[in-house]
């Protein structure tokens, strides 16, 4: 331990605006193939919520309240940060009228509508974009995030999918978002 003390994986982080600029190019939603739509929604949720891939993997259609201009997610399963008396989490987002190309509510609504016919009895939000369209693992969600980051020009040999948490929180901090609010979203 003294010879090789533990160090954080990242001493710095990548610029979220690079990924957001790239995601703006993947629009409009109706023109995206299912793979692009799925990957865009994954990265948008990861950046906006600062949640782990495990949490995104556990999102269930039964626990999503989708309103006209907002969405609320509730995860009632065990998470990495779960402990006695603090189980699961919930987070909410409002629509983003200034730029619909980055509106998680719009892309979530489009994704649910597009996957409705192929999902069968599957209630998890994210399903495979290839047959047999079953639920995906948290590793698959991490891979999707990493693929989009790589396509956006982020060095994925250096930054893994989990880096979206630190990048999102760093960007929020620079935008003067209160620490309490960031902690509530990121778990």
How many helical stretches? 7
Strand content: 5-15%
DSSP helix fraction? 40-55%
Question: What is the CA-atom radius of gyration, in angstroms?
Answer: 17 Å
Quote the average pLDDT: 86
Strand order of the largest sheet: 1-2-3
Model description:
Helix 2 packs across helix 5. This protein is 42% helix and 8% strand. It has a three-stranded antiparallel β-sheet, covered by helices on one side. The protein has 187 residues and is mainly alpha-helical. It is globular and about 55 Å long.
What's a concise summary of this model?
The chain contains seven helices and three strands. The protein is mainly alpha-helical and 187 residues long.
Features:
single chain; 187 residues; 3 strands
What order do the helices and strands come in, and which of them pair?
Elements: H1 16-25, H2 34-49, H3 53-57, E1 64-66, E2 70-75, E3 89-94, H4 104-115, H5 138-152, H6 163-174, H7 179-186
Antiparallel strand pairs: 1-2, 2-3
């Amino acid at each position: 331990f003294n010879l090789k003390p533990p160090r954080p994986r990242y001493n710095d982080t990548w610029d979220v605006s690079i990924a957001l600029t790239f995601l703006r190019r993947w629009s409009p939603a109706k023109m995206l193939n299912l793979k692009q739509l799925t990957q865009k929604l994954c990265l948008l949720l990861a950046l906006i919520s600062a949640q782990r891939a495990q949490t995104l993997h556990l999102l269930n259609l039964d626990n999503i309240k989708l309103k006209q201009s907002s969405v609320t997610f509730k995860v009632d399963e065990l998470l990495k940060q779960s402990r006695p008396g603090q189980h699961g989490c919930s987070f909410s987002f409002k629509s983003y009228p200034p730029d619909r190309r980055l509106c998680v509510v719009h892309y979530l609504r489009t994704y649910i509508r597009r996957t409705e016919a192929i999902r069968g009895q599957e209630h998890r939000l994210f399903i495979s974009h290839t047959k047999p369209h079953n639920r995906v693992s948290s590793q698959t969600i991490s891979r999707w995030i990493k693929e989009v980051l790589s396509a956006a020009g982020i060095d994925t040999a250096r930054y893994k999918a989990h880096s979206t948490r630190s990048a999102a929180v760093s960007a929020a901090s620079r935008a003067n978002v209160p620490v309490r609010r960031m902690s509530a979203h990121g778990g």
